[in-house]
Amino acid sequence: MSFKCTRALEFAHKMGITHRDIKPANILHAGGSDVKVTDFGAALIATGETTQIAAIGSPAYMSPEQVKEQQLDHRTDIYSMGVVMYHLLTGRLPFLASNNFSLIYQITNVDPPPPSAFRPEVPASIDRIVARAMAKSLDDRYTEWEEFSLDLADVFRSEQFGARAEVFGDSDKFETLRKLPFFEKFTDAELWEVARISAWRGATKGEVLMREGESGEFFCILAQGEVKVTKKGKLLNILRTGECFGEMAYLSKTAQVRGADVTVTDDAKIISVPTEKLAASSDGCRHQFDRAFMEILVERLTMANIRLSGV
Fold first, then answer.
1. What's the confidence (pLDDT) of residue 56?
2. Which CATH number among 3.40.190.10, 3.90.550.10, 3.40.50.200, 2.60.120.10 corresponds to the domain 177-309?
3. Which residues are designated catalytic?
4. How far is CA 149 from its chain centroid?
5. Domain residue ranges of the chain, discontinuous segments joined by +
6. Cα 22 from Cα 151, distance rounded (Å)
7. Of 205, 206, 212, residue with least CA distance to 261
């Protein structure tokens, strides 16, 4: 949840928007692991580096600079997101006070106990992320949403926090897709769509992923590892991280069968995209896939011509 909020708020920041009222009531569960940040009624449209504001927001989640009615930028939302994380992790707010004066004093002067003080299973890495997000000094706080979200993704991948039964979580999928050249022109929204419609799994050396003559109902992209493409035992190609295979199942306008075998040659992570789900996806998502496939086909035809010409 926190990771997806940081991604949404980074997008808002790029649009010049500071929310100013980040709190649990403004983060809606949209089903599964999806969330939506709502109620931008108090938001600012930036006209410069910072904007002077009046005290707007929910006191318990306000940043030190917000309760002091100082100039604000996106880092006030980063602080508030840190308070939301603290609340979710511990079931209580970082500062408890009988009145607003006491609350404001604590926000500006007191460091709260780490979340692990109330939930010992919370790892030190999460304590550090929350503490940095809630740093009173802007110099000590996260300066960019991306750095905040990357730290959250790294913790999720590590074995020290959360259940590892779900090998590919949403944050892991998003960060993996964003780093692959195939998806470099996809927007964040399109990457989330790809993450939703695709299936992710590990594959071990020697596993046959596709067989010649089989029906092609999906295509794949290598998130990690290496595969070989063979036809009747003859090696056609070696594909590595970021490359796709089986895409003719999607590109063909008629029923398509596999034209070759695809076998794992080095332990791999496979992204499988069902052609039926892609066909039902947004126009933008399909357009990005079509563009990426066109570039790949042009590159492969060029290489084939070079080989045939003996250059």
1. 57
2. 2.60.120.10
3. 21
4. 8
5. 2-165, 177-309
6. 20
7. 212
- Residue 203 makes CB contacts below 8 A (sequence gap 6+) with 209, 225, 264, 267, 268, 269, 270
pLDDT tens sequence across 231-271: 998 998 899 999 999 988 778 766 578 889 999 999 999 99
User: How many Å is the Cα radius of gyration of the chain?
Assistant: 24
CA distances from 222 to 42, 231, 241, 259 (A): 43, 20, 5, 19
Q: Is the pLDDT of residue 224 over 80?
A: yes
pTM for the whole structure? 0.58
Superfamily of domain 2-165, CATH level 4? Transferase(Phosphotransferase) domain 1 (1.10.510.10)
